[in-house]
Amino acid sequence: MNKILFKGFHENPNENEEIELNGKIIKGNWIFGYYCEKDAIGFDFDCIVPLKKKNNNLSLISWKVISETVSQYTGLDDKNGKKIFENDVIKAFCMLKEKEMIGIVLFDLYNGLELKLLNDEMWHFDKLIDIEVVGTIFDKKEV
After folding, report:
1. How confident is the model at residue 132 (pLDDT cuts 50, 70, 90)?
2. Is residue 127 classed as helix, strand or coil in its secondary structure?
3. Phi first, then psi: what are they for 68, rounded to 5°?
4. Which H, E and C letters describe 26-71, residue by residue?
5. Is residue 80 classed as helix, strand or coil in its secondary structure?
C-alpha cells in the first residue's frame, strides 16, 4: 500500500532554503506529512502535520505552508531513492523516443502520472526509465 504523504513549503526567514513563487524569493523549508486544508481542523491556513513519535508518544504539530506549494507523493522513488512528488522536475529516459527528457511531474485523473515537457508534450510514466528528481517547479531560477 502506498503511503499518503504531502510536502509543502513553510516560510521562515531564518532558514537557508529558497523557492521562487510568483516572482518572489521566499526563504523557509519543506515540511513532509499529512495535508490539512484551511478550515479543515479549525485553522485559517493550510498546514502539513508531520506525525512523529517522541518518547513513544505521538506528537501532532502543524506547520503553516504556502498553499500553492503543496504536492502529493506519487508512491514512486527515483533511481537514487528520492521520493517523487507532483511538481517535481525530473530527468528520465523515454524508451519510445530513445532520448533523455526533462519535465514536470503531473497527476491526471484519467491518465495517472505524466511527465509534461517544456513544449507541452505529455508522456506517461510507464514509458520512462532511469528517472531522477533534479528539482521542483518552485526552485529559485538562476539568472
Report:
1. very high
2. helix
3. -65, -20
4. EEEEEEEEEEECCCCCCCCCCEEECEEEECCEEEECCEECCHHHCE
5. coil
- Convert the pLDDT of each residue in 63-86 to its tens digit: 899 999 999 999 899 999 999 999
End-to-end CA distance of the chain: 42
* Residue 131's pLDDT band (cuts 50, 70, 90): very high
In angstroms, the CA 50 to CA 32 distance is: 6
Position of cell 516560510?
Answer: 11
Query: Average pLDDT for residues 125-142, to the nearest whole number?
Result: 87
**Residues 6+ positions from 33 with CB-CB distance below 8 Å:** 5, 6, 48, 49, 50, 51, 63
d(CA 46, CA 60): 15
Q: How far apart are CA 36 and CA 81, in angstroms?
A: 26
- The residues facing 72 across adjacent strands are 6
